[in-house]
């Protein structure tokens, strides 16, 4: 093989080219066979850019051409430079999707490049785009028909997003990454809010609490507040922008704009949506059993026997005054939580609450009595709450017991027991001797096993308030039932419109507790007020969050109480003035527990009539204070204390102000006495009583005196001061008074049956023989409610 000749024109080569020329002169040129591999002519056949003249298809062709071409070293050096430039360009453009033409190289060989590449209908897909630099028109045809160059807009957008994500997250700057996460969360929240707004506008149903302002209502309906005010003016209501509207006004305004209204309570709006507990976190919990029934049918005695302690002895009059919660361990080792509800008719709301938080209901019916109204009401509460019912027929040890009659009466109200082919379990028991009580508990446990009662103890506690009271020395004490989660001492708890940190917990025996799991009744200290019985309680992480929700709820309750207070309209005043005087009985109610105060207040309000209105000015738990006496003095009210006593200062102030304080221990005694007081305020009715019938037998007309009737008293005794009616042929022709009553010539005060008398009537002379003079009196008759 002949040796390659040196370059004939070294003066035209730059210093960089001389360095590369020296490299090309070495024998290592045989190792540059990679030039053929770079072209990768695989799918497009053996075509070359120059019509096959270069011969870069195989490894051996380069040596033959190099021997026949005197300018081969310089050409190879140019090719090497092209390769280097192409590699560096490709490195820079590796991530790009749309490739642009590189700048033309002044050192390219113009003889080799041809512009006829643009005429190829099917170019070789393996040719590199930078191989023919400066060739105009050949770049667009390279990507035509190549599958790997088909890039959709979706892929482009995805790659742009990925690149932006890498740029924002790859700098190592924690603040930038946090900012990106915040922006992403904000974008998701905005999208979610837009979606909810769209759903709200499509559904045309407003879910809101009562007493929202006109401005807020306009925002919910997506209209101007001026439009809302115009509608109110058209309806005769004068409202301002921030004035809060009641339920009736909200419904009317929303209806004008084509919206339906669904009212939510403050608790429904504030309580967060609970997450579903996973199955592996749930553990079995004890059933919550409520004992219901009529007064004196043996509910508390049954619970007394189960607990092996006498709780009935402490109840005034043998009546359970407020709800009790007890934790009982049965002989079989199973734990049952019992709720004891009152049976008196005044405690309807307490029975309804007991049915809502319970799992199984025991209805106690006395075998020597009948199915009473409160028994039917308790059955209705349990059925409305979809709670399993177990019938306990008590007092079967009495000689007069007739359990079959009870079953028959239950069947009459669609409560068919299992013995008669029904679905309700029934057990005959005796709370006095203990007969049948173990079997009753087994049936209760059987019902609870069918329910598969489970709860997650490893979460924040939620549950219901059973009772609340004010204990002197300890503050507000709330009896609560933990339904899910575990309550710890130190937790921040929100119950109704009151909140606080749990300072201490005790069970029903007074034993201190650190934690309370599901289905555990406990007494809690630490709330800033007495929540209402039946309120839901929730544990929050921070005290600030609980305080904000509590303040908003209390504000809503204040506005609601002010607006729902019954105001007497002008028309009502006119109507009552027309029928007579109108009386009001103002009452302040204080009690030991919230449930009893609520029951007593509701019972007193039901006593109101058209003439006597009962107004509950204030109600609360705790002893009667000086502020209560001052309020009663300012509003002429009486104070009713239920299981509480006034303080020494309040008693002294009440004596000075002459305020009537009534103290009771049995609820129906308080109701009956208030009823008697209202009856005393009623205006008595006037009732006519006929005392005499006198027949006119002769008529004497005397000048300057008038007409005098000679009469015979046929019935009763006629008095000088009696009012009379003149009846002729069964028709009353005159009503008036007696001017003179004489017997012979003497004036007398009365004439009895069988005697004659002379009667002259004031301002009436048209008497005829045969008329009947009817004497009567008007007596006041005391009215009853």
Instruction: Determine and state the CATH class of the largest domain.
Output: Alpha Beta
Strand content: 25-35%
Helix content: 25-40%
Shape category:
extended
Please give the count of helices.
22
Task: Return Rg in Å.
Answer: 51 Å
Work out the count of structural domains: 6
Number of strands: 32
Main sheet summary: 6 strands, mixed
Low-confidence stretches: 12-18, 44-77, 91-95, 97-127, 131-138, 140-146, 268-273, 309-315, 318-323
The CATH topology of the largest domain is Rossmann fold
| Name of the CATH architecture of the largest domain | 3-Layer(aba) Sandwich
**Main sheet: strand order:** 5-6-4-7-8-9
Keywords: Cytoplasm, GTP-binding, Initiation factor, Nucleotide-binding, Protein biosynthesis
Main location: cytoplasm
Family: Belongs to the TRAFAC class translation factor GTPase superfamily. Classic translation factor GTPase family. IF-2 subfamily.
InterPro entries: EF-G-like_DII, EFTu-like_2, IF2_II, IF2_N, P-loop_NTPase, Ribosomal_eS28_CS, Small_GTP-bd, T_Tr_GTP-bd_dom
């Amino acid at each position: 093989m002949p040796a390659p000749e040196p370059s004939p024109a070294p003066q035209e080569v730059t210093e960089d080219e001389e360095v590369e020329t020296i490299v090309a002169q070495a024998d290592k040129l045989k190792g540059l066979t990679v030039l053929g591999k770079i072209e990768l002519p695989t799918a497009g056949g053996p075509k070359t850019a120059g019509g096959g003249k270069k011969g870069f298809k195989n490894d051996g062709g380069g040596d033959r051409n190099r021997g026949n071409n005197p300018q081969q070293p310089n050409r190879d050096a140019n090719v090497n430079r092209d390769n280097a430039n192409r590699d560096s360009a490709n490195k820079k453009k590796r991530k790009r999707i749309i490739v642009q033409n590189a700048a033309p190289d002044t050192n390219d060989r113009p003889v080799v490049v041809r512009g006829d590449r643009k005429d190829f209908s099917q170019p070789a897909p393996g040719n590199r785009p930078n191989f023919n630099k400066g060739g105009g028109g050949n770049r667009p045809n390279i990507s035509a028909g190549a599958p790997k160059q088909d890039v959709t807009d979706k892929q482009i957008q995805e790659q742009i997003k990925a690149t932006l994500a890498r740029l924002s997250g790859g700098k190592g700057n924690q603040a930038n990454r946090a900012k990106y996460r915040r922006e992403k969360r904000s974008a998701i929240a905005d999208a979610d809010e837009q979606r909810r707004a769209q759903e709200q506008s499509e559904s045309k149903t407003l879910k809101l609490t009562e007493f929202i302002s006109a401005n807020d209502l306009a925002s919910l309906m997506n209209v101007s507040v001026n439009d809302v005010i115009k509608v109110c003016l058209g309806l005769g209501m004068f409202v301002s922008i921030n004035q809060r509207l009641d339920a009736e006004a909200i419904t009317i305004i929303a209806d004008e704009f084509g919206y339906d209204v669904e009212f939510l309570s403050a608790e429904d709006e504030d309580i967060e949506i609970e997450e579903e507990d996973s199955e592996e976190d749930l553990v079995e919990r004890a059933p919550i059993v409520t004992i219901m029934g009529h007064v004196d049918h043996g509910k508390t005695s049954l619970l007394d026997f189960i607990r092996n302690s006498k709780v009935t002895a402490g109840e005034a009059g043998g009546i359970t005054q407020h709800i009790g919660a007890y934790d009982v361990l049965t002989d079989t080792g199973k734990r049952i939580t019992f709720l004891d509800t009152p049976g008196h008719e005044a405690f309807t709301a307490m029975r309804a609450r007991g049915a809502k938080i319970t799992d199984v209901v025991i209805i106690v019916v006395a075998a020597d009595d009948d199915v009473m109204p409160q028994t039917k009401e308790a059955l209705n509460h349990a059925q409305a709450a979809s709670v399993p019912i177990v019938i306990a027929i008590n007092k079967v040890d009495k000689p007069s017991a007739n359990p079959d009659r009870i079953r028959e009466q239950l069947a009459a109200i669609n409560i068919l027991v299992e013995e008669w082919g029904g679905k309700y379990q029934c057990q005959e028991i005796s709370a006095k001797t203990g007969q049948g009580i173990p079997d009753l508990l087994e049936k209760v446990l059987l019902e609870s096993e069918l329910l598969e009662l489970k709860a997650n103890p490893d979460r924040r506690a939620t549950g219901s308030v059973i009772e609340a009271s004010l204990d002197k020395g300890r503050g507000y004490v709330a009896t609560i039932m933990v339904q899910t989660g575990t309550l710890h001492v130190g937790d921040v708890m929100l119950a109704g419109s009151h909140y606080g940190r749990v300072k201490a917990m005790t069970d029903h025996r007074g034993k201190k507790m650190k934690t309370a799991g599901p289905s555990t009744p406990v007494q809690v200290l630490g709330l800033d007020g007495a929540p209402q019985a039946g309120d839901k309680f929730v544990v929050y992480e921070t005290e600030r969050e609980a305080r904000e929700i509590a303040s908003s709820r209390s504000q809503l309750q204040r506005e609601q109480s002010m607006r729902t207070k019954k105001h007497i309209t002008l028309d009502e005043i006119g109507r009552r003035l027309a029928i007579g005087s109108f009386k009001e009985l103002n009452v302040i109610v204080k009690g030991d527990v919230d449930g009893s105060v609520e029951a007593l207040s509701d019972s007193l309000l039901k006593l109101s009539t058209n003439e006597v209105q009962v107004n509950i000015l204030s109600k609360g738990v705790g002893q009667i204070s000086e502020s209560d006496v001052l309020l009663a003095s300012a509003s002429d009210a009486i104070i009713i204390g239920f299981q509480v006593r006034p303080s020494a200062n309040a008693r002294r102030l009440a004596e000075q102000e002459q305020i009537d304080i009534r103290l009771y221990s049995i609820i129906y005694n308080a109701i009956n006495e208030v009823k008697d007081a209202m009856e005393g305020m009623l205006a008595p009715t006037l009732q006519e009583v006929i005392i005499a019938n006198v027949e006119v037998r002769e008529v004497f007309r005397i000048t300057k005196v008038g007409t005098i009737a000679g009469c015979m008293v046929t019935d009763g005794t006629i008095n000088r001061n009696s009012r009379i009616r003149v009846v002729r042929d069964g028709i009353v022709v005159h009503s008036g008074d007696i001017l003179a009553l004489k017997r012979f010539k003497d004036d007398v005060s009365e004439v009895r049956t069988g005697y004659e008398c002379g009667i002259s009537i004031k301002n009436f002379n048209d008497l005829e023989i045969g008329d009947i003079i009817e004497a009567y009196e008007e007596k006041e008759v005391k009215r009853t409610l």
